[in-house]
Design goal:
This protein is of the alpha+beta class. About 20% of the residues lie in helices and about 25% in strands. It is globular, with a radius of gyration of 21 Å.
Amino acid sequence: MRRSNGMAVWRMRWLGAALVAATAMPLPSQALADPATCPGLDAAGAPLGEPVEIAHVVAGDEVQLADGRTVRLADVAAARDPLAGPRPPDDAAAVSRAALVELVGSAKAVRLVPIAPARTAATAATTLDRYGRVVGRLIVLNAAPTTGPDQPVLTWADAAVALAGRGVVRYQPVAAWRSACFAAVRAADGAARATGAGLMAIPAYATRDAGATDLTQSAGAAVAVEGRVVSLGHAGRTTYVNFGDDFARDFTAWLSDKDRQAWLSAGVDVATWPGQRVRLYGVLTPRDGGSMRLTDAGQVEQLPHRPNTAGAGPGGDTKIRQGAAP
């Protein structure tokens, strides 16, 4: 009994500290979101979207509206309550849900900008996801006085960008449901990872090192993996992105030639990656030393150069080996 009570006390302390840290951080809204690509207001200064009333926060990435609709935030994913059994000690679901409650609860108004999905065989006949939810952006609005109480200035924040910047949700690229703010969400996620903000300080959310030897322990999970690309290889109609010299034991990402060609039109050239640091978002598979399939350019963020002080090894500048690229 004492051991159980001790775990409960530890869990409550950790959860309380995480909640305070997550909700105390200022909104990274307009600071990280370029109004040209992630707008909250139209050209006339009026807020985008339709006004909505939040009836219930289901999860850190999902709300139920007063009119009965359920809205799923685009570009992010939050932890969910376990279907059965006790809550995990970190209770990430409670942390992310509390952050969204605070965000929408403190707003003067909330606007919904639904996303029309990319037309595929699976989405051609619907504007809802497979669970019947509207996928879109939530814009939270506040009026801040400037030169006087009678001259307020409307300020806004994109909910997904704000939550990702606090480290309470993770960036999740889904090409069919991508919002105009996906790059801002990805940047906010990266900033949270760099500082260990919110949930990014716990192992389940932290960025994986591409050179780690235990990557396969996270197989089946949606993760972010970061490292320096050593070489490219090609076999059949597949390009392999190698993060080490031992292809049977090191982390590898792969993409089809068709997707690689499509990425070129989006300004993403895989041929330039060797020697560069990248962060990849996707589901980790247990093949070899861990692998990840890349289907969408939104899964990739090319990172600034960082000198390799170790001198050699996976991701090191001194061990770049070019493979046979197509």
